[in-house]
């Protein structure tokens, strides 16, 4: 058994760990400098390997004006994802991709914006934390988002990732208590991922009230960049959230378009629309 | 908790009363750890609900009123205590003395009612008037729908689409009980996907809804809660066995393991005895034997998975054991050697199902038949002749009768065809 | 015994505690008479077996060892005592306090196990190692096969061919339990023909075979034996009710009536109380309401028959009540007014089936749902608001779920078609 | 409720009733005089109404040399009958016959040998004992055999039947105890019906040992004519039984032939064979 199990016994032991301090990573510096220059940030998600042209799409996202691209590593049981991303994950696996194959293809994509991988903890745990951190780092990936790794369980990964130079981004939810929010904000690196709605990933017609509330809560707790994802689906919703947040994360709205056959050009246009709406 | 690995080293491979000094099957603490296993791997949106649940359970479980209420419902509604039955004919046949803890006689036909009754009470205590649950074959879904009906709560049950078709009647049964059954169309469309879907539903409704997990699995505090709620099986059984055995404990205590709740509840009554504890998995879903450590559904435990961490489908004759994981406490008990985990294959299980029916007039659930099958196989081998064995019969087999009929017919036809080809 | 008609005159129409002075539900004597009903109308070849059985039962029933043995099996194997459940939600809905005696929790899913266990023990006492039985839906057949398996006896069950097709799964269940199931092709190919066939088989085998009659019917001593063996239901229920009701008895005691064994066993516990006793027949098999006195299957009782004495087929939604007769003691209790007999029709029964499932999480056997249906219908009418009612829930409804599903689907389709035509 | 229920409380109360004594009926005198003249008696059964020509068949039975003809009154639930007679009963009912219609057609058949009806007690009970006895007697029928009316329950019917001049024939079985045999023999009128085998009506390849044993038992207990039925199927079996018994009763062997379409002529020949075998 590897180090994945050396978790802190109590939340309090995490609070002082201050892993979020120290030299800034690529993601956090990029987002901070955007904020410093009065710009809102845009982070777009797609599932690695979900379509033959996914690498082109990733570049299109960059070209469209995103600040960060978030790349999903496929997992059979994506517990916080709605049908759109579940399906993308399945498409990726069914066409013979694996989390590692996705990681390994990142370097040749030659992205100039920072890349973060988003996945579930078993993918990392099974590979071995050290091995996975090395692999991610050597692929030039800047950050990680582990959907099912709450702060209590995050110590091992955060340590290992940091050693490899990876920023680990943590989530704050509408139901996260103030105390807890403070701790998560301390631990999170790159930015704080505000979960905009109580629910799984997926597009919604209306921006939930909770999206702005959680952003406000996080902004009150930290100076770190504060991006809202889950529940933000359209350019106008993105604009609305950015009244408070430092930026937005869009996933399902993009993944759905890819699934529906929209190519790199179409995605680039959509990202451009998003960019324009928050600028 | 931190000494886990040394504990594992000291005791692994040596079951027996040496463990009575250990606080096995106690409180897993705030982190919900069983040695290295367990924990709480859920997305942040679920953390508040998990923490609230843990706090409430700690309060409830320390509250005599809660226990009294629960005990009273289990007694006057659930049919507890269930008896221990002496299996005269089977014992004679196989040379070991077999006792059955009869959870098949509990309301809804399995031990699942113990768990759901407790969780429904807990939900009410938390002011939540809606239950959601996952189900494979439908037993836990039926039990949850039952508790919800009895307590006047809303209920939604998630069930893989494949399972809704295989177990159509159980779907109707849940609907009769007033539950809303959702056919899950994602992934392999079976139990593990139903769990995913229940968790997803819980994310968006956790403020009003309690997720009634069906076995000793999931994020902390579920494995602990469910084990504690099933402990009644083991506690009753130990007393009953002592009465039957002149104050002695059985040499062996055997239970089938899907998620592991009936086994955990049973073992909990015997950890401080010298009984050998055995959990029997389905050969096609043997997470302890063939699994590797991993994280699924909020817990770190042994899982059936491929090299890249993708979860595999479990495949067994009994839908209730078709789960690619196992409760984290079992992974722990296996690692420290306090319990051993074995498996039984489909053929043995069908045979045991028929043998228990014919010899004792008790048609076991296919799940429970795994435990029986292992005992039959190992009588005179691993289990010395003359030993006393308590098997928890986790449920009744009425639900399985038509499936077994089809299997027996098919194998009969295959044999006949075989014969025709030969002759 | 000879004063019967004057007794009937004195008391008819006035249920109540005035009867506590009567030795109702006592020993029917050597002639097996309940007032004018009962008796022993069998061909001479069966007389020796009937007389032997009566003698053995008299000895056994006076023998503490026999009672101890029986009680011990019922407790450790059969799941007795079964609880009494307070139905909070149904009570609130209908305005009378409903308690259920939970025979659905007994092994094999109904009260039938009480009877067969006793008869199997009796058979063994008589040195007979083979049981035969008739069955309609299969419940009594399954119970008999179960007792035979448990005690290592041979077993043959007679079942009308129509019923073997309708209840195919129960046929397999009996076979699993080691019984030989004979499909009866004579007459209407249903329960009454299965009884005929069992009697015929008994004629040629009575020296080695015990006929395990399934209800309080047949020639003396069967109605008496079966009532005594089911008395445990009423005896337990009375004590349990007194505990729940602060020493009081329920105002009403209600049970469904096919042959009448669960009702007889229940009533037996309450004859010396002031409780009103109500037996609920299926509207399509209401031998008390629509039948006339006659002789069938060895007894004088009320029967559904035509003017020339040909027996008619009973027709009800529940196979277990599809019997054109009724136990003779019920005919007697009706005639003296100590119990009243009502009926419930198929529609009411399906509704009650659904209501109990949804409100209490208890899916009743369709047979038992008759008793529930009558109580729901008469709450606030015959049964005053605020009364306390004990219903014997004779069995669980798992066996009936697919039938009810089909009925509900059909009526839904019919309604939809109706709507389409209107629109 | 009619008198059908005034049964004796105990077997012993029957023992002394001696209803079997007094003036002899047609059946008993015929059988006694046969015995006195060294002849064995033959009683043949058919189900009333079982075929369109059943009345011709009854006369053929007479012509073939039977001493008594036994006519079944159809009943829906013939508990002691095997498949052959069950089927005949069903045929009769299905073609619109009833017990009464069968009885009422006896007079016009103009039989010169005594007729007995064989049926189940419900047929009589439902009609009313008094009414039924009157009807049977006015049809000129001499005797009754009620398959499911054991001696304990027989008092009402015997009294009523006797008053109407009907001889009620009772059964003794292989399992009937000696004491009981004595009582039944006392009560039985016309003859004593010895049940030749423990089983239902129907043909059997071999004559069971019990056939002769029961005959011997009854002959030891009474001087009344002793006929064996049930289990006697062939002329040679009939002959064999008559080594001990005063005669035989054949039912299924005849009914099967009728069911199979054998007409009056064929039955007459068969009866003649039987007659010859026991003469
Ligand atoms: C009768 C029965 N036994 C066992 C199981 C397996 O669950 P567990 O291992 O949690 O006891 C199930 C699950 O559905 C079941 O229905
Ligand atoms: C559950 C149940 N209840 C009632 C009955 C009717 O029998 P009785 O009237 O003898 O209780 C049956 C018969 O099969 C039954 O299965």
In a nutshell, what does this entry contain?
By secondary structure, chain A is α/β, with parallel strands linked by helices. Chain A has a single domain (40-278), classed as Alpha-Beta Barrel (TIM Barrel). Helices cover 45% and strands 14% of the residues of chain A.
Describe the structure.
The complex is a heterotetramer, with two copies of chain A (279 residues) and two copies of chain B (423 residues). Chain A has 279 residues and is of the alpha/beta class. Chain A contains 13 helices and eight strands. The longest helix of chain A is centred in the last third of the chain and has 15 residues, at 264-278. Chain A is globular. Mean pLDDT of chain A is 92; it is low at 1-21. Chain B is an alpha/beta fold. Chain B has a domain at 76-109 and 231-408: Rossmann fold, CATH 3.40.50.1100. Chain B is 47% helix and 16% strand. Chain B contains 16 helices and 14 strands. Chain B has helices at 4-11, 44-61, 64-76, 88-94, 112-125, 139-151, 161-166, 168-176, 191-205, 222-244, 261-268, 287-290, 328-336, 346-360, 366-378, 401-422, and strands spanning 33-34, 37-38, 84-86, 97-102, 130-135, 154-160, 180-184, 209-211, 252-256, 276-282, 292-296, 299-303, 339-344, 388-393. In chain B, the strands form four sheets. Chain B has a six-stranded mixed β-sheet with strand order 3-4-14-9-10-13, sandwiched between helices. In chain B, strands 7-6-5-8 form a four-stranded parallel β-sheet, with helices on both faces. Chain B has a two-stranded antiparallel ribbon with strand order 1-2. In chain B, strand 9 (252-256), helix 11 (261-268) and strand 10 (276-282) form a beta-alpha-beta unit. Mean pLDDT of chain B is 92; it is low at 1-21. The chains are: A alpha/beta (279), B alpha/beta (423). The complex binds pyridoxal-5'-phosphate (2 copies).
């Amino acid at each position: 058994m590897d180090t994945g199990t050396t978790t802190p016994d109590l939340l309090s032991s995490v609070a002082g760990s201050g892993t979020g301090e120290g030299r800034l990573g690529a993601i956090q510096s990029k987002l901070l400098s955007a904020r410093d220059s009065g710009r809102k940030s845009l982070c777009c998600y797609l599932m690695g390997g979900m379509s033959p042209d996914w690498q082109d799409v990733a570049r299109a996202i960059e070209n469209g004006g995103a600040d960060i691209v978030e790349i999903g590593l496929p997992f059979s049981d994506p517990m916080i994802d709605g049908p759109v991303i579940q399906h993308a994950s399945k498409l990726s696996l069914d066409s013979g991709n694996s989390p590692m194959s996705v990681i390994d293809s990142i370097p040749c994509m030659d992205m100039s914006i920072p890349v973060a991988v988003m996945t579930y903890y078993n993918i990392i745990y099974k590979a071995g934390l050290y091995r996975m951190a090395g692999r991610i780092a050597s692929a030039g990936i800047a950050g990680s988002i582990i959907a099912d790794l709450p702060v209590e369980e995050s110590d091992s990964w955060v340590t290992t990732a940091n050693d490899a130079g990876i920023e680990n981004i943590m989530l704050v939810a509408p139901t996260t208590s103030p105390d807890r929010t403070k701790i998560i904000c301390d631990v999170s690196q790159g930015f704080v991922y505000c979960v905009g709605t109580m629910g799984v990933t997926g597009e919604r017609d209306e921006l939930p009230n909770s999206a702005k509330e959680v952003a406000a809560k996080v902004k009150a707790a930290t100076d770190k960049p504060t991006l809202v994802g889950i529940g933000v689906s359209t350019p106008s919703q993105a604009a609305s959230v950015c009244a408070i947040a430092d930026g937005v994360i869009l996933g399902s709205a993009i993944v759905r378009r890819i699934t529906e056959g929209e190519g790199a050009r179409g995605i680039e246009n959509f990202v451009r629309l998003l960019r324009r709406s928050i600028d | 908790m931190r000494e886990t690995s040394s504990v594992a080293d000291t005791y692994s491979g040596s079951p027996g009363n040496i463990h009575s000094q250990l606080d096995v099957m106690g409180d897993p603490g705030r982190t919900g750890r069983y040695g290295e296993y367990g924990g709480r791997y859920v997305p942040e949106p679920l953390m508040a609900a998990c923490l609230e649940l843990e706090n409430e359970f700690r309060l409830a479980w320390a509250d005599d009123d809660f226990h009294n209420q629960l005990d009273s419902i289990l007694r006057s509604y659930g049919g507890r205590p269930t008896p221990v039955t002496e299996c005269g004919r089977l014992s004679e046949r196989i040379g070991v003395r077999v006792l059955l803890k009869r959870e098949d006689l509990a309301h809804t036909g399995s031990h699942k009612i113990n768990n759901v009754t407790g969780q429904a009470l807990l939900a009410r205590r938390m002011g939540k008037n809606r239950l959601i649950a996952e189900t494979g074959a439908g037993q836990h879904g039926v039990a949850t729908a039952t508790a919800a009906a009895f307590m006047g709560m809303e209920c939604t049950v998630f069930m893989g689409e494949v399972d809704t078709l295989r177990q159509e009647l159980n779907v109707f049964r849940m609907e009769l009980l007033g539950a809303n059954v959702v056919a899950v169309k994602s992934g392999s469309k079976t139990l593990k996907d139903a769990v995913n879907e229940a968790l997803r539903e819980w994310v968006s409704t956790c403020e009003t809804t309690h997720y009634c997990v069906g076995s000793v699995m999931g994020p902390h505090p579920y494995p602990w809660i469910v084990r504690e709620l099933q402990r009644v099986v083991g506690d009753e059984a130990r007393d009953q066995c002592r009465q039957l055995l002149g104050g002695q404990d059985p040499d062996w205590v055997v239970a089938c393991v899907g998620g592991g709740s009936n086994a955990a509840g049973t073992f909990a009554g015997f950890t401080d005895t010298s009984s050998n504890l055995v959990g029997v998995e389905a050969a096609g879903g043997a997470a302890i034997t063939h699994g590797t450590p991993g994280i699924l559904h909020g817990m770190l435990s042994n899982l059936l998975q491929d090299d890249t961490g993708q979860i595999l489908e479990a495949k067994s004759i009994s839908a209730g054991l078709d789960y690619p994981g196992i409760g984290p406490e079992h992974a722990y008990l296996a690692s420290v050697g306090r319990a051993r985990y074995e498996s039984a294959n489909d053929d043995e299980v069908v045979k045991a199902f028929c043998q228990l029916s014919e010899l004792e007039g008790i048609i076991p659930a296919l799940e429970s038949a795994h435990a029986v099958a292992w005992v039959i196989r190992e009588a005179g081998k691993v289990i010395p002749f003359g030993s006393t064995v308590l098997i928890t019969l986790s449920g009744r087999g009425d639900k399985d009768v038509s499936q077994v009929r089809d299997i027996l017919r098919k194998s009969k036809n295959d044999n006949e065809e075989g014969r025709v080809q030969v002759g």
